[in-house]
Amino acid sequence: MSRFTDKVAVVTGAARGIGAATALRLAAEGAAVAVVDLSADRARATVDAITAQGGTARAYGCDVADLDAVEAVFAQVASDFGTVHILVNNAGVTRDNLFFKMPKDDWDTVLAVNLTSAYNCSRAAQTYMVRQRYGKIVSLSSRSALGNRGQANYAAAKAGIQGLTATLAIELGPYDVNVNAVAPGYIATAMTAATAARVGADAEEHQRLAAERTPLRRVGRPEEVASVVAFLASEDASYVSGQTLYINGGAR
Questions:
Q1: For the chain, which has fewer Cβ within 10 Å, the N-terminal or C-terminal residue?
Q2: Is residue 35 part of a domain?
């Protein structure tokens, strides 16, 4: 497939997990990918994997919670590749704790990295998208947006993504910019392994228990989220905007 030939995509938090899988998927379908993570060194393994498969990618270091840094990196991406057509807001962290134990710093960090970063990157990207009257923004929400014990900060941020998505779809739609979100359930990543550790569980056992509560009787893979992100970033979803699609194996 070559749905993204001549398209430039920016994927944040792309050093590993869902971000890396998404960068690889977009590149495999023809996009030139700006692989963004906290440092360029962290992003380089994903770039190497893309180039090994014949794709085009460059590594960029950026603290996406810092608006000035975001604007600078988008300007560099536009200088390197010409413009920005696709943005995937994937960067995220967890700082899990019961609410009454949650330090203010952990609240601030999770909101900044998971939600404010999407504001920062979307604000920078829309400058190019509005000008060219074309763009696709896909942000990562989560099943936790519906509430999850020990994740008041993460749940609030991921619920915020859904509100931001719906609003940007309204405001950017007249410029032919589609804005959507995906909300994964349990996906086997380093982040969910850290969640298992938080509750004193082995990662494999934690996955097994999650699978038992899922109608498909397994947990998800990063590549399965990446395929849905790619759909929403493509012309196959040209009349889809303002939506949050849950990717959770049928869990309610």
A1: C
A2: yes
- Written as one string, the DSSP assignment of 49-100 is HHHHTT-EEEEEE--TT-HHHHHHHHHHHHHHHS---EEEE-------B-GG
Active-site residue, 246 included: no
Q: How confident is the model at residue 193 (pLDDT cuts 50, 70, 90)?
A: low
Output the CA–CA distances (angstroms, integers) from residue 135 to 79, 94, 170, 179, in the order listed.
18, 29, 14, 8
Token output for 79:
């200088």
Pairing of strands 32-37, 86-89: unpaired
pLDDT band at 1 (very low <50, low <70, confident <90, very high): low
Nearest alpha-carbon partner for 223 in 78, 37, 17: 17
Whether 192 maps to a domain, the answer reads: no
Any domain includes 199: no
Which residue of the set 60, 119, 128, 154 is catalytic?
154
pLDDT digits (tens, 9 = 90+) for 83-101: 999 999 999 999 999 999 9
Q: Residue 97: which CATH number?
A: 3.40.50.720
Could you tell me the residue range of the domain that residue 178 belongs to? 8-184+221-247
Q: Does the pLDDT value for residue 77 go beyond 80?
A: yes
Q: Is residue 26 part of a domain?
A: yes
For residue 224, give both structure tokens. Answer: 């399965």
pLDDT (tens digit per residue) in 30-51: 999 999 999 999 999 999 999 9
Domain total in the chain: 1
Report pTM. Answer: 0.94
